[in-house]
Amino acid sequence: MAFVSSGYNPEKPMENRITDIGPRKFDEFYPPVIKNNKGKWLYHEILEPGVLVHVSESGDEVYTVRAGGCRLMSVSHIREVCEIADKHCDGYLRFTTRNNIEFMVDSKDKVKPLVDDLMSRKQDGGCYKFPVGGTGAGISNIVHTQGWIHCHTPATDASGTVKATMDVLFDDFRSMRLPAHLRVSMACCLNMCGAVHCSDIAILGYHRKPPMLDHEYLDKMCEIPLAIAACPTAAIKPAKVKLDNGKEVKSVAVKNERCMFCGNCYTMCPAMPLADDVGDGIVLMAGGKVSNRISAPKFSKVVVAFIPNEMPRWPKMTDTITRMVEAYAKDANKYERLGEWAERIGWERFFEKCELEFTHHLIDDFRDPAYFTWRQTSQFKF
Amino acid sequence: MAKHETPLLDQLETGPWPSFVTDIKREAESRAKNENNVDFQIPADVCEDLLGVLELSFKHGRTHWKHGGIVGVFGYGGGVIGRYCDQPEAFPSVAHFHTVRVAQPAGKYYTADYLKKICDLWERRGSGITNMHGSTGDIIFIGTTTPQLEEIFYELTHNLNQDLGGSGSNLRTPADCIGASRCEYACYDTQALCHDLTVEYQDELHRPAFPYKFKFKFDGCPNCCVASIARSDLSFIGTWKDDIRIDQEAVKAYIGGELKPNGGAHAGRDWGAFDIQKEVVGLCPTGCMRYEDGKLEVNTPECTRCMHCINVMPRALRIGNDRGCSIFAGAKAPILDGAQMGTLIVPFMKVEAPYEEIKEKVIEPIWDWWMEEGKNRERLGELMKRQGLQKLLEMTGLDPDPRMVQEPRSNPYIFWKEDEVEGGWERDVNEYRKHHQR
Q1: B7-159: which CATH architecture?
Q2: B245-318, which class in CATH?
Q3: Residue A100 touches partner B, C-beta closer than 8 Å
């Protein structure tokens, strides 16, 4: 493994340096049918699950075939994506916000060979490589975070929970039987770099134990003021601690009952780890949306306070999600999003229909907004 | 024979959905065979150690990654995130395993040729494992060593005309929806605005000078496919002011069943015949529509442009012609004071290159205020909460508008300013006492 220089000279880092050029300009990558018809599209139609046609005022059509992808993707897999794009789409493709791959062709006769090709490609264990679907009143791909593959604060895995969930929701990725589209999102800790807080169903990793304190090393590994400042609830204060060997060291003390388990202190100070095999697990949230359609965008609400991590397939979590999807599919009106359905029937009815237990953890007690979530009317359902 | 046994991960190699485990194994095998004689610059068995450490996490129920120290490329304060394994002896090939964020093109359109070059670079100088894409929008390279960072940056900029994305307390890589490139609902060119602002604010993107992260996202219409209103400090949502364009013949075709409602989105179930009264007129949130005598009418001043009727009948109804965007400020995920949705601060603004009004009347005054007043790690939305929406209006010079609130305040505790009250606050108590005994 000999080092191969790119041309970069560490002695003269500024020599020939190129900076601040930004991303490639989008129109370099437009397929011709997109370039020619941008801003001229008249309407679209979903021909079958995963296949859309957009029709331009010029008469041109673009057919889009949407295939699900793991957002975690190897270069071998991407090269196969490229091979498909070269074979069917003149070398063009795009990705969606929800980690789907979109292959576009400019005539209808090119659609079936493309779909057949995508659906014929399978991994060694029999999983589809490029399942076609994710359109209309169904379930699209899950947006998610890193989890145990590459993050330091996750309370669960992301790719694993997503694989387990998409396996059970697969039929709804491939069909459009639901009252409206249903968006599932996953974030592996409450910092939510995946911003799952406005999803129809959100899977959230959650820690339940405050950080452990590695007193002997804390002052050596961390800037104590930064660790203190990192705490959003001001639960951490400086402390002098006597070690077993009698030595007194500078460290911190944590007011455990104020800890909200975010792990921000651990980000600043590796001597404050909080991950735990039984403390950590899953929170399920439901009823959020970002669209302004009919009703305003809404936050997801916590509907299950805790489900243990059950590797490798999280069966209790996937069972609970399936139950919510089925109750919604059965009971909601056409066009009604999951949160709109819950609000119409009342959350008391939502818990009943989804067979979810309502525990005290689900009553908001975090700061001012909590008060506005308590019921202040005599109108409720028995 | 795999380097590490992975009995738990192996159970994720069945079922219909693509398996990331099989995919990583495929990459491991490809690196082991190395049929193209790639001169790997990080260990060839990196993917096997990645699977090994992930299997250990599945066994322990805990992550084995540590947050890295400061790593990056010269002159930039973001774009690279340090990452180290906490079991380096067991998994030496992923002991140092940093993330590189690569700025994605607006709209996430690619050519296969470009992606192949990205793959070649990342196979040689990294793990060959990516995210397509990260939550914010970047192409994410997962896993390389510190000596490779400058080399990757050099090759990206010199050979691929491609820069890094944002991380840390700076402008994060902006992201947009598909917009006018392939959507009839787009009220402005999201890709053009996204790219222009990304290029204009490269300094803010690469060199952290903000109190915390800052995100721009661009949705072409109120359907909000990139969720800008939920997750960006400044959210640009396309809208229009004039009439929805109606094709009455196409309306009849929907009623007659020749056209499928909602672009065929509900084709998987028999919902019965399309009922325009129930499905469109009756669901309109403002009641601004009526269908009588074979004619659909929209009372435009009452319409709040929720998109429902247009979504249901895309061939009959089209967005208006007087288009622009609404701008929302302060959205963020729940840490700390709970999640915040974006608040409307500009009901309507034209979106026309070179976007001077957006930059000079909105973005830059907001940044000036936030950089002056924002505390360390305080998002714009939290500053708005702490100092008030009025303060944002004062600092930007934007005029207050009833559209900016759901309802007026229900308490009368108005913090009048001295200059708003006739005669000011300085008064002579002795003059007062001439008329009012002690």
Answers
A1: 2-Layer Sandwich (3.30)
A2: alpha beta
A3: no
